[in-house]
């Protein structure tokens, strides 16, 4: 399965691609071809979330800079002139799908804006698709005709916030939903069968190791105690596995095809009445429902994942070299403080205690800094995502990837448990939005914008996405982008999806 | 510092001890002597939370059984006849401090009952003390006279639920608060100074490595970026360190003095207006405030800590021997299923996916079972606590301790942020209570019992503790202990503290 997706990466990164297929509807299963949709993009920008120490990651990216082309999501339908405007750091024009063109599936609203100069191009990428999943051939080996009721459709939204180059975000935006589709193929029949999922399946045809004629093993076979596995948890497992395979694919191809850099990934899958919100990184998803805010993700940063990182450094000290200590100190320890006692935290602690300073404590802490300045190994400010296989500590051979996790946290929201009105929305945003916008401010914008549009006006969600992006970007004033309260707006790339939970054209 | 506490363990376990000092009040700092309070107790009961596979832990306990004496908390002031009644599995009489004797500090209510026969003695232990902390001598080396305002008092409550013998719970109930006191000695001045805590302290006198005359290094010294450390987090760190030192002490002394078995520890420290609730194990603390339930702890079990355990097994496969796999399966894999695909979860997943069964998957899963039957290495059902240094997998040399954590999770509750009424309480209970009592049922009992007593009746919190214990124990009927709804009552040891948050005699 991996090899089937792999060919698409090779194609994508090595030469020109096929014309954009545009958004697909459920009755267009053929649109899920593995062919890439746009010309290739090689990484070409300095590290974004990766700090100044990530030199070795930036170096090969520089070599590729010259031939880097600039791409934006195909659903924006940008002309060459539009593409240049979207790439203009000075104007920072907000981009949305054209009002006149084909709308995004599920009446989704979308808007984005490029950063104020922190990287050459917009390193965010986005994807919005309807994906058809054909069931895998049954164990008998005989091809089964796909017919009505046999396949499954899922709606898919993805935001990918790239760093240290745009390659990983670009590749993930093209391929992650295909990995999800592959993982769901095994589940097409199981998810449509209300009985508990089978714990054991026959081996797939042609797999080494399958010898006896395989049979489904029912959930109530010989073991006295067995766990109940829900249908939801199979979908969660499929999404988790897809993230892992996407990351492995980037690892395997990074040398040959320059899939440089890494990206945060925030993904929503709508399947059989439920929204699965999967987040790996520091993007954020919230539901605003009747004015109430329901968090649908949490951020993964050196601060929120401190104990996982420290535990890993403690159990595998070889990953720290002789440069880092897994202990945390409130500031860098000075050589003159040897023998004195300083506050510290280890992997088991949430509080602080004093310890006698020893020589090893003079090493740089694995986790340091606070808020947006928190870093792992003085380099990277997010601890989950895809890619980053080449990321190393500056002037060192120490790889950082072992500390990063590609696994998302997945939250499930059952759309059928609540009667949603047209003003109830799921908002996805990269950290460019949330750095300067609180959840409450976003909810206020939802209320303000949607109340000025008729409930059945299809442009209302795009207008809301634009308002959110504009509210985070601000306007140019006093040599900077500033918000109405004169605070600095976000100089980062900003991308926002608005998904109506009960609006026109949504689920049936 | 460790050696100072160690002598007390030796004394406690090797020979008879000093007479019970009884509850102490803040003006009795001398009562915090390290001398043990009651005659020694050697472990003598079969494993409780440890399953049948924990044979090697039970074996040495058996040898000690003959000379095991039975002890209950000194504050119960039990006569020899009362001690026999408290040890009677048939009658299961509820025990509380006598109404006529000295009351527990803070008007605390307490009640306990022995199990229905699962272990020879009641393996729960409890402690309720007022502890005076004298500041450590200053760095100048000159002894400083303790005077008013220089020391600190904390109130302390501890519940210890033993398993595989009563030794660890007994030792912890005698010594853990002394470890906490030791840890707080450094903080006596710091906690009473409203300015931010110093990040660096001079070395303690006589410590190797302290050469230059030490000076306090203020929080705003040379490093540009430093973390703010709160006073609360110092107390949290002190409690965490105390748990660790208590556990290390048990490890060092387990061979010489038969500190066998392990215990869950649920501890509350009241200091300077705040309640610090520290939990390691499956006991539970809730606040019932104006009818509202505020959870103050969470349980640590193979299910809630699955991912931590699996990650450890994955990173340190030598800890699994050739007997266990870190992967989780919904049931035991059969040899005939080799090559088929079964649902599994690894350390990164919360969902389930199918994998091809290989030979290694036939090993026993590190984590298996559900609910109260969940086990680590088929042996133990709690994943945090003190002791268990000798616990090994049955018919194997594999130690289980590496998978257990002695670190509590500490939650902080600020008593000054809310005007509490006499009916607002903090309830601590071992799992014997919570196995058959929901939080809501406990809150209903709080309301029902306290409403029948005058707000200033000092016996109301003991009556409430007794009602909670009785409600979980039930009455003997149909060859078992049964609740009014005819469901089985708890056959486990049950211990309950009720701490009034705004009642008579509480904090000033």
Describe the structure in your own words:
The structure is a homodimer of 508-residue chains. With 508 residues, chain A is of the alpha+beta class. Among the domains of chain A are: 74-136 and 150-194 and 230-295 and 405-500, Phosphatase 2c, domain 1 (4-Layer Sandwich); 306-381, no CATH class. Helices cover 24% and strands 19% of the residues of chain A. Chain A has 10 helices and 20 strands. Chain A has helices at 2-14, 55-65, 80-86, 167-185, 188-191, 231-257, 306-315, 431-434, 439-450, 460-473, and strands at 109-113, 124-133, 152-163, 200-201, 262-271, 274-280, 284-289, 292-295, 324-325, 341-344, 353-356, 364-365, 367-368, 375-376, 386-387, 409-414, 425-429, 475-476, 481-482, 494-500. In chain A, the strands form 6 sheets. In chain A, strands 2, 3, 5, 6, 15 and 16 form a 6-stranded antiparallel sheet that branches. In chain A, strands 1-20-17-7-8 form a 5-stranded antiparallel sheet. In chain A, strand 7 (284-289) and strand 8 (292-295) form a beta hairpin. In chain A, helix 1 packs antiparallel against helix 4 and helix 9 (439-450) packs across helix 10. The longest helix of chain A is centred in the middle third of the chain and has 27 residues, at 231-257. Chain A is globular, with a radius of gyration of 24 Å. Mean pLDDT of chain A is 82; it is low at 1-68, 139-147, 205-224 and 504-508. At the A-B interface, strand 4, helix 6, helix 7, strand 10 and strand 11 of A face strand 4, helix 6, helix 7, strand 10 and strand 11 of B.
